[in-house]
Amino acid sequence: MCIGKCEIDSIKANENSPLRGRRILFLGSSVTKGSASGGVSFAEYIAARNGAEFVKEAVNGTTLVEGNGSYIERLCNIEKGEGFDLFICQLSTNDATRGKNIGVPALTDSPDTSTVCGAVEYIIEYVKETWACPVIFYTNSYYESENYSAMVTALHKIAELYGICVIDLYRDEEFNNIGKEKRDIYMADFIHPTKAGYLEWWTPKMEKYITDYLKKRQ
């Protein structure tokens, strides 16, 4: 159970965290928003546990692929004068559910934003040019989806081309091997975590990926 300890005010920050004082931009849809956990997600927990500042741009049901309310549209509406030290983006499950065209990774100046790959590449280039900060994409924990599995494969290929970090919760067998009892506590459904799922399961793993990546860049 996650009574009391899941409240943001009860979390003490790690004074020695490499994320302390950093400003993080989170971009995503319902999983980033915390739609099944009262609007609290790993974004709030990472910030609280590490003494970081953050902006969370997350809207339920939105896609990476360009269109009304897409990731790209909302990213471009953020003031360019804002300063960010780190960017973390969700590989949206909505693109998989709606059967959006995945496309192919292609290191190009004109990515096809009508495809998942093109949208991801556009976002990477936009963030690097606008804020010159490290870029991280994260995946959902495992759930049955051929489309999403293909998106994860494509994301890794893009990461190799662009030199970004992928927090791959989808293919991490040890991470996903938690058993039915914990899964019932940690997940509201097969896609959306609960507060306990974010705090006790997702956040520690994501923090490790993030800190390891930042150390490699030093």
Quick summary of this structure?
This protein is of the alpha/beta class. It is built from 9 helices and 5 strands, in the order βααβαβααβαβααα.
Count of individual domains = 1
CATH topology tier name: Rossmann fold
Q: Could you say which overall geometry the principal axes of the C-alpha atoms support?
A: globular
Alpha-carbon distance between the two ends = 38 Å
Report the β-strand fraction as a percent range.
Answer: 5-15%
Main beta-sheet annotation: 5 strands, parallel
**Structure classification:** alpha/beta
What gyration radius follows from the Cα positions, in whole Å? 16 Å
How many distinct beta strands?
5
pLDDT averaged over residues: 96
**CATH homologous superfamily - what is it?**
SGNH hydrolase
How much helicity do the residues have? 40-55%
Per DSSP, the total helix count is 9
- In the CATH hierarchy, the architecture is 3-Layer(aba) Sandwich
Q: What string, H for helix and E for strand, traces the elements in order? A: EHHEHEHHEHEHHH
CATH uppermost class: Alpha Beta
Strand order of the largest sheet: 2-1-3-4-5
Low-confidence regions: none
